Amino acid sequence: MLRLDNIRVDNGGFFLDADLGVEPGASVAVIGPSGAGKSTLLGAIAGFHPVVRGRILWGGTDITHDTPGQRPVAMLFQDGNLFPHLTVSQNVGLGIRPDLRLNVAEEDRVRDALLRVGLRTLGERKPAALSGGQQSRAALARVLVQKRPLLLLDEPFAALGPALKAEMLDLVAALAREAKATLLMVSHDPNDARRIAEQVILVAEGRAEEPAPTEELLDNPPPALRDYLG
Amino acid sequence: MKHLTFAAGVLCATGAFAQTPELTVYTYDSFVSDWGPGPQIEKAFEATCGCDLKFVTAGDGAALMARIRLEGERTGADVVLGLDTNLTAAARATNLFAPSGVEADYALPIEWSDDTFVPYDWGYFAFVHNTKLEHVPQDFLELARSDLKIIIQDPRSSTPGLGLLLWVKAAYGDQAEQVWKDLADNIVTVTKGWSEAYGLFLEGEADMVLSYTTSPAYHVIAESDTTKEAAAFDEGHYMQIEVAARLASSKQPELAQQFLQFITTDAFQSVIPTTNWMYPAVMPEGGLPEGFNDLVEPRNSLLIPEAEAEAVRDTALAEWLSALSQ
Amino acid sequence: MAFGAQPVRTWPGLAAAALVAAVMLAALVAVALRAETGAGLGAQDWSAIRFTVLQAALSALFSVALAIPVARALARRSFPGRGLLITLLGAPFILPVIVAVLGLLTVFGRGGWLNALLGLAGLPPVSIYGLHGVVLAHVFFNLPLATRLILQGWQEIPAERFRLAAQLGAGPREIWRLLERPMLARTAPGVAALIFAICLTSFAVALTLGGGPKATTIELAIYQAFRFDFDLGRSALLALVQIVLTLAAATLALGVSARGGFGAGLDRVVQRWDARTPGLRALDAGLILAAALFLLAPLAAIAAAGLPGLLHLPEQVYMACLVSVFVAAVSTILLLCLALPIALAAARMPLVEQAGLLGLAVSPLVLGAGLFLLINPVASPFALALPVTALVNALMALPFALRILTPKAREEVDRHARLAATLNMGAWGFFRLVLLPRMRPQIGFAAGLAAALSMGDLGVIALFADPETATLPLQIYRLMAAYRMEAASGAALLLLILSVTAFWLCDRGGRHAAP
């Protein structure tokens, strides 16, 4: 259970308030107008923006002041998810040991993860030699080995084509289900939300609302969301 | 940590050789270079003293003086070798030096009766030129009237530069500033030190360069090159006498005194002409080497007495700066 | 990024910067405290300050103004020998002053090549002596550095931006406005400040080519105060003036060069779609050729003068080579130990870089005297000659290293810190796995510069010189003092070869391993 206990987040002078909870294993889309604070919400959970009020709880434990690396969080950003100078295998290996001193069993885990995302033969390549979709898969393979219970996606697939994006979202959903992970995903596209999220957090006017069932919310949007959906 | 180990190593090393007394001589850098007098003199003295002669260097005479002043009474030097007559007044004023107790039959153009500073070589400042130069000027006024180009050294950073300053002052007194004004259009440039100036001259940047009357001897002896010559000026030539002295704080006073005495002997003096390219202060038994005999002999030796040198120096520098800054 | 665990620690850099500042200031204070008389600054000193600022400002201005078109030409052209040319162009910067001045005069002097050519064409000779000569020499020394630093700025514009610009149909002018001018606004002021600082302490060049006491710089005034008047108070005061001027220039430059972001881009080969017209090609070729001629002709003169002596050098010269190589290696390692942490700290706090600039701002003479006063009571300066030389050489190279390393460090931290933080890499892991490999070209360049500078620098060793272990530059001076100009020229050529080789090895090592 992720609980944002009446928090206020400071993102360089922009403030976001949230008071909500997310059930374990839930898949939740975060939607709202541009600039409303979707990325800020995820950034706060991941530990990139200071929380000036309230607490963030994970399974009852206060993680408000944990460093990003200490949190139970794996996160994918809009870009820069891979180190360009490391091979795909090394990039994935970072998810197991950040110092890359992997033993044989750990290297096997890297290979398994690459196999799972469909990059079995591309482990020795550098990211620049991969297509956009392959780069996303490589990043997902790392999320897989990270085994964090909370997965945050800040539009990592925004640059991909619709078919490819759908394919990635399905893969994410599948991986999250397998790992029983909680998924929070920023999205601009209500169809993405319908596709893999059973709940939606609406972020508008500096405030993040409690998760609501996806179909219900999208079929009967409140005014703020209606303006956004057009 | 490494430094500590290193320092400890040095301490142990000095400890181990403590039975051999060590004489530390501060001198200028070119003296100890492999082409200078240092190595031969070290060998010769160590053969007689049963001691270890150690040279410590500073850039040139003035740097040497600065170092002694920085160290003051804690100085590690037993002997300082390489001050000249422009520095002896300042050196004496520090009260760091002890009487030498040395007497010798000096071959200097002037009477020497200093009880502290022992001269070891000397020379005349002069303008050196190529022998094919026509109408070599006979004095500063003629040089100033000519359109010959000269390179000189800055008196603030170089010993010969200071020598030239005092040369003009000694020869022309109150007229010195006017002489400098007249020379201004002859001066190609002013360099930091002797090496730069002489290098530029050899590159052909000027007709004449401020150096010593003994400079052509190097070219004759070492390179069999007779194309360099020093111009004899009618005003006379300013002298540089290089001296050594022992420190009052020395823990080896006898040894230091022995070294000062050694300076006046053949073993030291015979090395000087072809390594330091100066005249020896005491004529060696074998006389001067071939090549020194054909050098220009000034009719007149100029030297401002030590007591006046400092005051004259400051006035002369101010005149020089004002004349050449216009 | 203002919150959360940073994969970069600033305290090692702050500590290193504090150490550097402490060494410099302690030396200055040691000299000031030892002062007996204090005459204050006289009219002559003020005129020296004015001249120093004037020549340094002009030198910085011309170096940067000329470096921009040359760097642009090099950035958008590839031709055989480009890498070698870039390496060779760095050579003037690392030459000992006296060698470089003699080389310059062979080309531009009264009896030099240029005047011989003018004479053939029936034109009157030109004189190099004067303010213009000082500026010319400083441009000769610093144009290569400025070009390299600005070229680096060009190469740090992500390829994607050029692609985007090409896609938008932007021509050279639009690219200039969109990409190049903002990049220069960030890069050029820092480079200018650096060159200004270098030229502030210039002394032998300014004096020799300035043509006389009109060209008195602060450093020469310090020389006079120190050795002519033995007025330690005034030398410390003048040294302080140098520091204030340098830091003022640096503050101004850092203030002007607002920190702009080009964001992240993947590493692809930089390709340009603009500037394919014959006119621009000819312009670039002309610029590259002119710069090469200007910088390489004096080097050729040095080589020509040195070749006869190179073949029969005295054995002491080879011994001195070994000493110099050893000192250069030690100071390069020391430099990296100081520069890398400081660059990382400066990536977060730009002001930290200023501590490094002290290495340029403190008069070598005063630094040497100060260290001597500090060390002499506790240990023999003699025994510490080599460590002190290595340290001082490292300090002198520090500002250059920081200018090279800091922008890249900042970019890497901006790009990858977030990801590293979610992966819990830690400061050491981030340094080892991301910064070191990502910054290899810059580290190689900085190390090469440090090695070469250290090889050619006479530095402050005068007071620490151990006559037994002379370095190569010292040996060159000794040969000259012993009238052995031919051997000195040979040794100078050897030094040039050693310096360029050291630079080339490090620089190439860095660039070749780059992803």
Automatic annotation (TrEMBL), chain A:
Which GO molecular function annotation, any one, does this entry have? ATP hydrolysis activity
> What positions does the domain ABC transporter occupy?
2-230
Pfam families (UniProt xref):
ABC_tran
What keywords sit in the KW lines?
Answer: ATP-binding, Cell inner membrane, Cell membrane, Membrane, Nucleotide-binding, Translocase, Transport
Kindly give the InterPro entries that the UniProt entry links to this protein.
Answer: AAA+_ATPase, ABC_SmlMolc_Importer, ABC_transporter-like_ATP-bd, ABC_transporter-like_CS, P-loop_NTPase
UniProt xrefs under SMART domains: AAA
Annotated region described as Disordered, given as residue ranges: 211-230
Stored Gene3D superfamilies: P-loop containing nucleotide triphosphate hydrolases (3.40.50.300)
Q: What is this protein called?
A: Thiamine import ATP-binding protein ThiQ
Question: Which organism is this entry from?
Answer: Seohaeicola zhoushanensis
Query: By which gene is this protein encoded?
Result: thiQ
From TrEMBL, chain B:
Q: Where in the cell is it found?
A: Periplasm
Task: List GO BP terms, alphabetically.
Answer: thiamine transport
Keyword vocabulary terms for this entry: Periplasm, Signal, Transport
According to the UniProt record, one GO cellular component term is: outer membrane-bounded periplasmic space
Q: Where is the signal peptide?
A: 1-18
Pfam families under this entry? SBP_bac_1
Q: Which CDD domains match?
A: PBP2_TbpA
- Looking at the record's lineage, which domain of life comes first? Bacteria
Q: Is Secreted included in the keywords of this UniProt record?
A: no
| UniProt similarity note | Belongs to the bacterial solute-binding protein 1 family.
List the NCBIfam families hit by this protein, alphabetically: sfuA, thiB
Indicate what this protein is called per its UniProt record: Thiamine-binding periplasmic protein
UniProtKB/TrEMBL annotation, chain C:
User: What residue ranges are annotated as transmembrane?
Assistant: 50-71, 83-108, 128-151, 183-207, 236-262, 283-305, 317-343, 355-375, 381-405, 443-465, 486-505
Keyword hit for tRNA processing: no
Secretion signal, residue range per the UniProt entry: none
SUPFAM superfamilies recorded: MetI-like
Highest taxon above the source species: Bacteria
Check the record and name the CDD domains matching this protein. TM_PBP2
What is a biological process (GO) this protein takes part in? transmembrane transport
Task: Report the residue ranges that make up the ABC transmembrane type-1 domain in this protein.
Answer: 49-253, 321-506
Bilayer topology annotation: Multi-pass membrane protein
Recorded hits in InterPro entries, A to Z, give: MetI-like, MetI-like_sf
Q: Where in the cell is it found?
A: Cell membrane
Q: Which keywords are on file for this protein?
A: Cell membrane, Membrane, Transmembrane, Transmembrane helix, Transport
Predominant cellular place of this UniProt entry's protein: membrane
Q: Gene Ontology cellular component? A: plasma membrane
* PANTHER family found in the cross-reference section: MOLYBDENUM TRANSPORT SYSTEM PERMEASE PROTEIN MODB, THIAMINE TRANSPORT SYSTEM PERMEASE PROTEIN THIP
Q: What's the protein name? A: Thiamine/thiamine pyrophosphate ABC transporter permease ThiP
- Provenance organism: Seohaeicola zhoushanensis
